[in-house]
Write a structure and sequence with these properties.
single chain; about 575 residues; seven-stranded mixed β-sheet; 14 helices; binds adenosine-5'-triphosphate; binds magnesium ion
């Protein structure tokens, strides 16, 4: 993989496509509105990163790199009830894996709790914030709707001193969770619900992974985010479209507080991927309720899952580049991600032979006990990748699907009396079909033509198919896991009903597979192409002598093809 595997600013700079965010940054630099572009990626550590986050990471780090600026990694760790150290560690690992480096610019919103608190007091002193004793339900009820204005809280006219006193006692832990909140005093009749006296602080009596028991109150996202941006000197605070309606509040806070810089927020369309749910809440439920084996289950759209499945980081970056950055939401076909994966793996993966569903083929005219070594190239487009030896012998395994006893017209592979080519080896002809008591085919018997060594007949006769094979004696037993989309429907329900949309056939485990000896000690995660099958990589569930392989992606887009067929059928 080598070079392709790292995304450093320099190389990316020339390849990067233009989009409206890059246009804005370019214009700001050209006009001197900003001297150095500073962006940030601000995950909340309440779950693992997914491919949607990758879009945001590539955008934030990409823009910073291309324009000679910097990108911060900032944990938005403002809600200790939901956040965990495991997630913090996983996020750092996954951003690095994707190929990005925040250098020394690792920050936490919790680093700013004291300053944020001070600003909240400033707002109280300016008459722009108040402590509200209404219950969470009352606050919700009085917020109004899109068509009706909200109602002022009975506590809205509290005096500054009383507000300061109560807010300080909230901090000191004198009140129960939910007993009071601090709200900005803006406008309960605003057309923008986010400006109807938004909550700035909540009482949450829970230990924080970084600040321990210091705090009993925690800032809301809206109060923490913009001010954290201002503290860090972020110039372009890039987020997804859901935050467009929050921008007036973002700007209001920046205007009314004595913050050290003036960041601006820009919104882009989040990534939605077909057959995939990119909601941390749903992903958490998938893990918690055991629908998948964990956050890194290879069916998960998390970066940890994609990595375990064998997807190289360069493929994800390529995908993100291809989909671009727009202002309108859309649904991207998961086939596009698979395209980028194939593109990448086709270049990097060494070719190997594996038989997923073995059927024995005995070559009756090949001497018992004899073996020979045949050369097989490691990569058809890369002579430097060299070659390896494959052992040929009397007893082979071929793919069960490559044989049909009563083949339809367009089936050109093995059938009784028919000759095919064994890849890198000889022409063979099927002579006899052996069955068990149940009538199932258990073995084929056939013959080979010694003159066709290497795959061509001196008499010029042709065969219509080339199939893969393994020598039965030295093939290594393996488990192969074939993955299909986790969700059956193209646009799965993101809410409570997601479980009904799960694809019952999202994984197929083949426990009788065989792989060539060279694969016995493949490295975990190293991509290989099983010839004619797809791209695979060794899974960490492997044990000595029994490797486990995950299918990263098939060779062709069989999924899209099946769907098209279904559609055509109506
Ligand atoms: P939640 O806030 O509900 O926990 P989230 O997916 O927004 O979920 P964050 O950790 O807040 O999670 O996300 C970090 C950053 O990634 C945010 O700036 C967010 O806008 C961005 N992001 C999240 N999901 C996507 C997506 N599907 N496409 C693009 N960017 C995304
Ligand atoms: Mg969020």
């Amino acid at each position: 993989m080598g070079q392709d595997d790292k995304a450093s600013g320099g190389a990316a700079a020339t390849e990067a496509g233009r989009d409206f965010i890059r246009d804005i940054v370019h214009a700001d630099l050209a006009a001197g509105r900003v001297k150095e572009v500073v962006t940030r990626f601000p995950p909340e550590p309440n779950g693992y990163l997914h491919i949607g986050h990758a879009k945001s990471i590539c955008l934030n780090f990409g823009v910073a790199g291309e324009f000679g600026g910097r990108c911060h990694l900032r944990f938005d760790d403002t809600n200790p009830a939901r956040e965990e150290q495991e997630y913090i560690d996983a996020i750092e690992r996954d951003v690095r894996w994707l190929g990005f480096d925040w250098g020394k610019h690792l920050y936490h919103a919790s680093d700013y709790f004291e300053r944020l608190y001070g600003w909240a007091e400033d707002l109280i002193r300016a008459g722009l914030a108040y402590v509200d004793d209404q219950s969470p339900d009352q606050i919700r009820e009085n917020r109004g709707t899109l068509t009706e204005p909200g109602k002022n809280s009975p506590y809205r006219e509290r005096g500054v001193e009383e507000n300061l006193d109560l807010f300080r006692r909230m901090r000191a832990g004198e009140f129960e969770n939910g007993a009071r909140v601090l709200r900005a005093r803006i406008d309960m009749a605003s057309g923008n619900i986010n400006l109807r006296d938004p909550v700035l602080y909540r009482i949450i009596n829970a230990p924080h992974p970084r600040t321990g028991d210091t705090w009993k109150i925690y800032p809301s996202y809206d109060f923490a985010h913009g001010q954290s941006d201002a503290i860090e000197g972020i110039t372009h605070s890039i987020c997804t479209l859901e935050f467009e309606d929050h921008r007036p509040l973002y700007d209001w806070l920046i205007e009314h507080l004595d913050v050290p810089s003036r960041p601006r927020q820009y919104e882009f369309a989040r990534l939605n991927l077909s057959h995939t749910v990119l909601s941390k809440r749903v992903l958490t439920l998938l893990v918690r309720d055991g629908h998948v084996s964990g956050w890194d289950d290879p069916r998960m759209p998390t970066l940890a899952g994609l990595r375990r499945r064998g997807v190289p980081p360069a493929a994800i970056r390529d995908f993100v580049k291809r989909i671009g950055v727009a202002k309108a939401n859309s649904l991207v076909d998961v086939g596009m991600l698979e395209f980028s994966i194939r593109e990448q793996l086709n270049r990097t993966a060494l070719r190997r032979m594996a038989v997923l569903r073995p059927l024995k083929l005995v070559i009756e005219n090949y001497p018992e006990g004899q073996t020979e070594e045949l050369d097989a190239v490691n990569h058809p487009d890369d002579p430097a990748a060299g070659s390896r030896k494959l052992t040929f012998s009397r007893e082979l395994f071929i793919e069960r699907d490559d044989f049909m006893e009563d083949p339809p017209k367009k089936f050109f592979r093995l059938a009784p009396g028919r000759e095919v080519r064994l890849r890198y080896a000889y022409f063979v002809t099927c002579r006899e079909v052996v069955r068990n008591a149940e009538g199932e085919v258990t073995e084929l018997r056939g013959s080979y033509d010694p003159a066709t060594k290497g795959g061509n007949a001196p008499d010029g006769r042709k065969v219509k198919a080339t199939i893969h094979w393994l020598s039965a004696a030295d093939a290594v037993p393996a488990e192969v896991r074939l993955y299909n989309p986790l969700f059956a429907s193209p646009d799965p329900a993101g809410g409570e009903s997601f479980a009904a949309d799960l694809n019952p056939a999202s994984v197929e485990v083949l426990s009788e597979a065989r792989v060539e000896p060279a694969l016995a000690d493949a490295r975990e995660g190293e991509p290989v192409q099983f010839e004619r099958q797809g791209y695979f990589c060794r899974d960490r569930d492997s044990s000595p002598g029994r490797p486990v392989f995950n299918r990263t992606v098939g060779l062709r887009d069989s999924f899209a093809r099946d769907l098209a067929k279904e559609k055509a059928r109506g």
